[in-house]
Amino acid sequence: MSATLTDRLSAVVGRAFEAQGLDAALGTVRPSDRPDLCQFQCNGALAAAKQAKRNPREVGAAVAKALKGEAVFATVELAGPGFLNLTLTDEALSEAAQAAPAGWTAPTPQKIVVDYGGANVAKPLHVGHLRSALIGEAIKRTLRAVGHEAVGDIHLGDWGLQMGQLIVQMAEERPDLPYFDEGFEGPYPEESPVTVDDLAALYPRASAACKAKKDELDTAVREAAASRLAKAQGATAALQAGRPGYRALWQHFIDVSLPALEADYGRLGAQFELWRGEASVNDRIAPLVARLEGQGLLEESDGAKVVRVARADDKKEMPPLLMIKSNGSVGYGSTDLATIDERAEEGFERCLYVVDKRQGEHFEQVFRAADAAGIMAEDRLEFCGFGTMNGKDGKPFKTRAGGVLRLSDLFEMVLGKARDRLSEGGVGADYPEEERQAIAEAVGMAALKFADLSNPRTTDYVFDLDRFVAFEGKTGPYLLYAAVRIDSVLQKAAYEGGADGFRIGHEAERDLALALAAYPDALRASHDRRMPHVLCDHAYAVAQAFSRFYAACRIGDEADRDVRTSRLALAKATSEQLHTVLDLLGIALPPRM
């Protein structure tokens, strides 16, 4: 396992605490809250004072004295009631910046499946699918970067009530099709009777037919909706039971939906290794239910079969996990539990679920059931819930008409705004049209991705396209421009390497090296917390540090050869780190802007 800079500094300071007869853990070092005063700080003397029943400043002074001889520190200063302010030597800082590309390695690499995406077959992707795809992909890439064997599973919604609703709607609109004739012996047509656009129009009608408005007073309307819903539930059960015509029609739904899903996810840069759906575990459910029954975990409840997962110390009511509905069909509870059973059998040691945080209770039910059944321990199942992307009214983002915005339409909105912003700035005005389009695509996707990922995963955020596509401030386009500018500096200088470390002498060089040295810590924090925004913060800090360095120091045209070589090496290290971090975030860079 590689150690981060704060790990190494904490070990040094920890030994100084041990020399005073105190716990080494008190020597934990972290970046300074006051970078104008020092680079790092340690507050352990305050906690040590309570343990040793000594004055904290006395403890701090003793530790500071012990650290005076450590070559890594340029200054060790005692502040306030016992805070230790620490600043590295330029040599130590240079070494840390050079070591940063190694990143951080997880102490126990694991085989991990990341469940994200969650798209429904027969429905186009909409803005509600954005966060799962972006956050899940970034988490998966981060897991791989630190040494895990991480696999992404889209976990398609292809086996629930929406399938029954579609089947019934098609039976109403096109009853002549052979899929609805129970006496038909096949073979069924190879060509699909619907396109993906047909399904996109069909599903809203199918869904609406099963619902009556809450304030609907017309008894006939309510009865019609209830009747249609009962038909859809029956069709769902028949599909899951294996009715041939329904299975054939369902396969058409899958076949026409997947290319559209692959295109939208591909544009987002989400790369799934597994394209499995809920249906893939259907044959596992009956044996699993039998196992649960044999373990005494399955109970009858109003004609359904459930697993009770409530615990005595629960502070809120925890409903049972529904395994088999009263009509014999299965739902999310049974397919999710069967999926964990399959993943455990395939050797996955941990499962991460990147899902809207509003589904937290459902996954807690599933995880508790998996633990109780001995399928997978609850502490190996992680719910990585995320907040919503909201409009300026604070509610989940909708179209002006109040509908859910298709992801493809969102892409066009972002691309159009990116084109406008590039034209306003005269960026690429003399480039070929094809290249200008590619740059606009890169800027638009960077704006969309960074805007989402730079917010803590668990929080909601407001969609503000004008702010997202700005080339100033904490935005994706700003980072693209920073990275491309650095590459341009290196190209103009024809830099091919050759520096033996960084010769740090200017404050701007010092700040940039310090920012670069923080990468392993940022990588570990992003991994441990499953929070991509930590890497966004790091990338922005590095870009800002380079901007100050660029403004304060001559680089490619510096007269002193050794200084020029060192500064170009620092610029090269910055370029490589930004490329690495942006790739972890799934953000692609254009060659020039």
Automatic annotation (TrEMBL):
Species per Swiss-Prot/TrEMBL record: Parvularcula dongshanensis
UniProt keyword annotations, A-Z: Aminoacyl-tRNA synthetase, ATP-binding, Cytoplasm, Ligase, Nucleotide-binding, Protein biosynthesis
The Arginyl tRNA synthetase N-terminal domain sits at: 3-88
Q: What is this protein called?
A: Arginine--tRNA ligase
Q: Name one Pfam family in it.
A: Arg_tRNA_synt_N
Keyword Nucleus part of the UniProt annotation: no
Q: Write out the residue ranges of the motif 'HIGH' region.
A: 119-129
According to its UniProt entry, one GO biological process term is: arginyl-tRNA aminoacylation
> What cellular component terms from Gene Ontology apply here?
cytoplasm
Q: Which PANTHER family match?
A: ARGININE--TRNA LIGASE, CYTOPLASMIC (PTHR11956:SF5), ARGINYL-TRNA SYNTHETASE (PTHR11956)
As its record notes, the protein acts as a catalyst of: tRNA(Arg) + L-arginine + ATP = L-arginyl-tRNA(Arg) + AMP + diphosphate
Q: Has UniProt tagged this entry with the keyword Protein biosynthesis?
A: yes
Q: Which domain of life is it from?
A: Bacteria
What Gene Ontology molecular function terms does this protein carry? arginine-tRNA ligase activity; ATP binding
Q: Which residues form the DALR anticodon binding domain?
A: 479-593
